[in-house]
Amino acid sequence: MAGMDASIPGLGTLVNTVAVAAGALLGMGAGHRFSERTRTIVTDCLGLVTLLMAALSAMSVTSPALAADVGASAPVLIVLGSLVLGGVVGSALRIEDRLEGLAGTVRDAVAARLRRRRTATGSAATTTAPRARTTGMTAAGATAAQPVDRATPPVADDTAVDTADDTDDGTAAEARERFIEGWLTATLLFCVGPLTILGSINDGLGRGIDQLAVKSALDFFASIAFASTFGVGVLASAVSVLVVQGGLTLVGMLLGAVMPESQIMALTATGGLLLVGIAFRLLDVKHIRVGDLLPALVVAPLLTAAVAAFH
In what ranges is there compositional bias, type Low complexity (predicted)? Predict the structure, then answer.
């Protein structure tokens, strides 16, 4: 039987989804056993592999198809122009800041909602406590003022029942809060980032799943760490990965159907240099604003088409 073809569009997204789900399950069971040092060395390894992938992608600048359309000396200039123009547009639009702001806004909104729920739960508990003390004082006063009729059965105090109900409600609310926060945090981490966009589009273009494979490894270890704290909410984020990256893969498939090979090569080479920026961030070499460079992926095929028209 033939092996599974790594160029099948959507395969990278499926691998990523399974990695998140598997990591979440492992984290829910034994995530606390992984030390910070272990997680750091794994991240360093992934950063080095990302550098290797970046080099392989950047080599597309030497593609014969690209050279045939724009000339032998133009490909490097096209990549340079794409990065510069894309960076200018991205920095003017503050894309990376907006992505981070979006993530922060959503997280702050959820955190505020959770705080309101905690406040409401605390207020309910505070209201119940004085009622319980008042009931106890009334019973004590009645005992002191009147003789106790031993034939009269004791009246059941429902304070304990109310307290138990409040405890159950509080536990359910806390579990719900942990689920929401875990799902939201993991979704933002796994679905908002340059590697998500680059990897999914390349997957759709049929360029292979190498980039999403590295992302899957990153997400696997990250989901272990998050699931050890937030629980099943991180597992639910696997659905978010499937939907978001599946949509981006579909975009890549549509682009691949209409773009000539030379434009795809220019996009791939430009994306390879963006991967260098991601690798530098993983290795803590330099925090390059890769998000601001994302428009370069749009500029590269357009610039290639413009140069080819005059070649």
Answer: 135-158
Domain span at residue 279 reads 11-102+181-310
CA distance readout (Å), 305 to 206, 295, 296, 310: 21, 16, 14, 9
Question: Is 131 inside a domain boundary?
Answer: no
Please give the angle made by the CA atoms of 280, 286 and 183, to the nearest 5 degrees. Answer: 70
φ, ψ of residue 6 to 5 degrees: the values are: -70, -10
- pLDDT at site 120: 74
CA distance 223 to 217: 10
Domain count of the fold of the chain: 1
Stretch (H or E) spanning 284: none
Structure confidence by residue, pLDDT tens digits, 193-209:
678 888 898 899 888 89
In a domain, 169, yes or no: no
CA 102 to chain centre: 13
User: Is 194 inside any structural domain?
Assistant: yes
Counted residue by residue, the chain has a size of: 311
d(CA 174, CA 231): 12
pLDDT tens, residue by residue, 70-104 = 999 999 999 999 999 999 999 999 988 887 776 66
- The answer to whether residue 21 scores a pLDDT higher than 80 is yes
Task: Identify whether 196 is part of a domain.
Answer: yes
Element (H, E) at 253: helix 232-258
Q: At what angle do helices 232-258 and 11-30 cross, to 10 degrees?
A: 170
